[in-house]
Amino acid sequence: MRLHKIKRPGGLYTFDFSTVAEDDDGTWLLAPIGSPWRAPHDSGRSTVPVVVLLATGRPWATWWVGDPADRRLEIDVCLPPTRIEEGWQYVDLELDPVLHRDGNRVEIEDWDEYDESIRTGNMTSDDAKLALVTAEGCAQLLRRRSEPWLERGWKLLADAG
């Protein structure tokens, strides 16, 4: 299964995953170490395991990243993901709430990319509003850690390890 992440104007980023579960929270994907990825400027294989949770109608995708130097949960704020023939795709809206597991620090990253997308017209004002509201809401969700699926992602990542 493939996940296509579309960055405007950066192009198409493609990741190979396998589906590990589908439930009320969405579709759970796994990319173990060595999984292929492709970007407009490069390609390679993942050096860390990753679990992704996607759901149609929800303007974000959650990535659990098993990087030993910085285990983190990243939320890609995006236009709602859609299923396509070969897997999933979404348009990235730049802002990324991130929970760094060590220290439990939450921050919103990529403000510079967000500002540039607005300035260059690569993001509509409606998409910019959606990105801002969603990023702030997701950052609060990460701070509260009240959703059971937050820990489920870490478990799936550990089980894949």
UniProtKB/TrEMBL annotation:
InterPro entries: DUF402 (IPR007295), FomD-like_sf (IPR035930). Gene3D superfamilies: FomD-like (2.40.380.10). It comes from the Bacteria. Signal peptide: none annotated. Residues 46-145 form the DUF402 domain. This is DUF402 domain-containing protein. It comes from Paractinoplanes bogorensis. The lineage of its organism: Bacteria, Bacillati, Actinomycetota, Actinomycetes, Micromonosporales.
